Amino acid sequence: MKKFPEGFYWGAATASYQVEGYNENCDWAKAARFGKVPPAGRLADHYHRFEEDFDIIAELGHNAHRFSIEWGRIEPKEGVFDEDELEHYRQVLRALKKRNITPFVTLWHFTLPVWLAESGGFERRDIPALFARYCGKVVEAMGDLCIYYSTINEPNVYATHGYLYGAWPPFKRAKLFGKKIGKEDGTSERTGAIASSKHIFAYMRVVRNLAKAHNAAYDAIKKANKNSIVSVVKHVHYFDHNGRPLNRFRAWLMAHFQTHSFMLQIVHKLDWIGLNYYRHTKYGDITNYLQTDMGWNINPSGIYGALRVLHLYGLPIVIAEAGIADRADLYRAQYIRLQVEAVHRAIQDGVDVRGHMYWSLMDNYEWALGVQKRFGLVEIDYRTLERTIRPSAHYYKKIIQKNAIL
């Protein structure tokens, strides 16, 4: 039996816009009203049913839970903060505490308040100050109910989808050497975004501003709660190679572009790092992989390489998201087992991993793809809102109970 360290955090993750429902004051909801992305609507109604959902977490043995706070609810107008919404999220934290579940709060998970999106979003010069003000306000309001805070979820994914692919708000699609950049799943075409080479510069500006916003927020969070442990949640697409020089260079170049170029701007303002892992590319690989419902190669063991990439920064790591879209629940249990085995191997090899959050707790709105891709340990019937625990969730529970790989 392969044991994990004492006090290891086991849980699952959600994001506010993807599960809460009834969230109309953000750029995604506005885009849905214009037909550019699927409407969200009620979704799982987690906003009102979080107590019920946390009972499920407790039943499944989780001792940690990651969720996000919705900026558009907290600051519905620029500089105006809604105390009722702050109290709502305090109630969410109290509900977790009552069940002895440690919260990991993400302060921003892709969606912007309408007022901010309409005034330039992360292209605004003053966005670092605006973001820091919001983060400081939330952390101060949460008090001693939480110490683990992530500033930004997947900064590079946000910038790429919104400013290169044109598939997400603000729908700026780039053109490089005369060729349109875009997603192959049709989401770039659906938005009607007109490709332009100038959006490359908007993309670069946004990435810089995301780094500056994180750094400013780090200081604001520490001021609001000196005991806070602050991270960024970084998506790592792990690039490997077959040893040939050209493929080795391609893997190095892509790792620098997708991970290190951003991390080097913020590493001096981090206590921990959150890892999101879903994708793996090995240059020169001829393996025929099974695929998830997202059309991604199934390779959960690749998380070992992703952990090694972030290990270079010498900080504790918590796996903030890692999971599989598998509506029929055919592969999820095996996926979890292989993923957790790879995490254990990384720990044995010296990587300081403190926790593992499966994505996701429940079926969710998968952004421009709507609700058809099912990642959840818990199935949601969107007609009746019935929650059904999938068999793979019970397998994950056994791992958690033993704090070890079975």
Quick structural gist:
By secondary structure, this protein is an alpha/beta fold.
List the helices and strands and how they pair.
Elements: E1 2-3, E2 9-13, H1 16-19, H2 27-33, H3 46-59, E3 64-68, H4 71-74, H5 83-98, E4 102-106, H6 114-118, H7 127-142, E5 148-153, H8 155-163, E6 175-176, E7 179-180, H9 187-190, H10 199-224, E8 229-235, E9 238-241, H11 245-266, E10 273-277, E11 280-283, H12 303-311, E12 317-322, H13 332-348, E13 353-359, E14 378-380, E15 387-389, H14 391-402, E16 404-405
Parallel strand pairs: 2-3, 2-13, 3-4, 4-5, 5-8, 8-10, 9-11, 10-12, 12-13
Antiparallel strand pairs: 1-16, 6-7, 14-15
Helix pairs in contact: 7-10, 8-10, 10-11, 12-13, 13-14
Q: What's the Cα radius of gyration?
A: 20 Å
Query: Treating each run of at least 4 consecutive H or I residues as one helix, how many helices?
Result: 14
Which of globular, elongated, flat, extended, rod-shaped describes the shape? globular
The CATH C-level class name? Alpha Beta
What would you say this structure looks like, in words?
The protein has 406 residues and is α/β, with parallel strands linked by helices. The strands form five sheets. Strands 2-3-4-5-8-10-12-13 form an eight-stranded parallel beta barrel, surrounded by five helices. The chain contains 14 helices and 16 strands. The protein starts with a strand and ends with a strand. The model has no long low-confidence stretch (mean pLDDT 97). It has a single domain (2-405), classed as TIM Barrel, CATH 3.20.20.80. Helix content is 41%, strand content 17%.
